[in-house]
Amino acid sequence: MRNNRNLAAPAGPAREQAFQEALDVLRERRDEFTEQGFVPRDYIDLLKRAGIYRASTPRMFGGEPMPPAEFLDRIEQISAIDPATGWVASFGSALVYFGSLPLDSQAELYADGPDVVFAGGQFPMQDAEEVAGGYRCTGIWQFASGSMGADLLGVGLKGGPEAEGRPRTAVLDAAEVAIVPNWNVSGMRATGSNELHLTNAFVPTERTFIRGSASNVDEPLNRYPMVAYAAQVLAVVSLGAARGALDHIHAVGSRSASVTGGRKRGTQATFQIGLARAEADLRSARAWFYEASREVYALAEAGIEISDETTALLRLAATNAAHVGRRVALAAFDLAGTGAIYTSHPLQRYLQDGLVPPQHAMLASATYEAAGAVLLGEQATIPSFP
Questions:
Q1: Closest CA to 100 of 214, 205, 206
Q2: If I label 313, which of 84, 227, 381, 386 is the partner at 20 to 30 A Cα–Cα?
Q3: 332: closest CA among 340, 321, 344, 343?
Q4: Three-state DSSP state, 304
Q5: What is the pLDDT of residue 4?
Q6: Are the C-beta atoms of 265 and 335 separated by less than 8 Å?
Q7: 224-375: same fold as 118-210?
Q8: Best CA proximity match to 153, nearest among 201, 117, 124, 191
Q9: How far is CA 354 from CA 27, 215, 246, 346, in A?
Q10: Which CATH class is domain 13-109?
């Protein structure tokens, strides 16, 4: 295990300054991250200093849990500069899953401090040999976003009937897992979502949990619907990408003129109307997204049971945000004109990355159907919903 898990600046002005410094560095280095295909550990350490990786660590283990709306706002700000780095930083929320582990196991994982980076590849779920005290794991897992900078890595195993189709996640120290580069993509390249390989690795039972199962930590964030939260942190990346695209269009694109000799774009009715509609769409989706999060977290703080219908609405707000964000990024591209087709154009980052979140299983179009089914009192049509 790494020994630099207590890096956060003191809460308050120093923490806020650390966050702003991380944003400034990101503006300078985002092209580097895209070119190399991952967010490096030295930048992950800046995010640790900004408190991103203790935002879901329980207070009982030294963490400073952040209300979801506050954490989501942080990820949105990062994503407005570089969506792929926002995607990686969003897994600062993933430690809520550890609440399903025995308390002794959690204490061990946080022994070096609360600033823990967890990443993983849950799918395809692999068979594991159950042996005395744990599991023998062999297999290949895909889409391990952020694995290059992780302290701990999780892999998905096929669970028994109690798992109800959800993966049993085995937690390993990063050094135990082989990360095999295969992330040859145009969108979200800097997430480094490579493959994880294991051969006959032993994982103790107490280091495994069913994703989305009941938490052994009774704190407000651990009462918040964890699978819905996992969908939210990815959806907010789309909101950030759309915000970055519109900010560019407003600040730069409106002043450009057509190479054919036309007026500046900002003086054209089609540009003005398109920009206004995109702003209205983005702000509306964003408002519901954060409103839903604050309402559900208030229930969690009060210890009030959160119904499936309420959770389904939270999931629906996340799906809506992701899809609206994608449409807004495309609208910005349309408004920018032909110049935006060049690989060096700033909008390419927001377009290529912003198209990805709605492709994720947690935010894909099928989640609309699942949300509608739950709201009608029917069985959800996809696993792990709501």
A1: 214
A2: 84
A3: 340
A4: coil
A5: 61
A6: yes
A7: no
A8: 117
A9: 17, 32, 12, 13
A10: mainly alpha
> Which DSSP state fits 380?
P
pLDDT score recorded for residue 1: 45
Average pLDDT per 10 consecutive residues for the chain, totaling 386 residues: 73 98 98 98 98 98 98 98 98 98 98 96 95 97 98 94 87 98 97 98 97 95 97 98 96 71 82 96 98 98 98 98 98 93 95 97 97 96 90
User: Is CATH 2.60.120.10 what the domain over 118-210 is classified as, yes or no?
Assistant: no
| Contact (CB, 8 A) for 165 and 384 | yes
Q: Has this prediction a pTM greater than 0.90? A: yes
**From the centroid of its chain, how far is CA 67?**
15
Tokens 């935006």 correspond to 340
Distances 73 to 55, 249, 303, 370 between C-alpha atoms, Å: 12, 22, 24, 26
CA-based max dimension of the chain: 76
Q: How far is CA 313 from CA 194, 227, 243, 277, 307, in A?
A: 32, 13, 23, 24, 10
Tokens of 103: 């308390």
What residue spans define the domains of the chain? 13-109, 118-210, 224-375
**In terms of Cα–Cα distance, which of 174, 168, 173 is closest to 155?**
168
In the block, which residue shows the tokens 């707000």?
Answer: 317
Q: Contact at 8 Å (CB) between 323 and 358?
A: yes
The pLDDT assigned to 374 comes to 97
In angstroms, the CA 123 to CA 219 distance is 29
Q: How far apart are the first and last CA of the chain?
A: 34
- 142-180: string of b/e by CB count within 10 Å (b at 16+)? ebbbbbbbbbbbbbbbebeeebeebbbbbbbebeebebe
Q: Which class is domain 224-375?
A: mainly alpha
d(CA 214, CA 2): 28
Helices of type H across 137-203: none
**How far is Cα 174 from Cα 295, in angstroms, rounded to an integer?**
36
* 28 Cβ contact list (under 8 Å, min separation 6): none
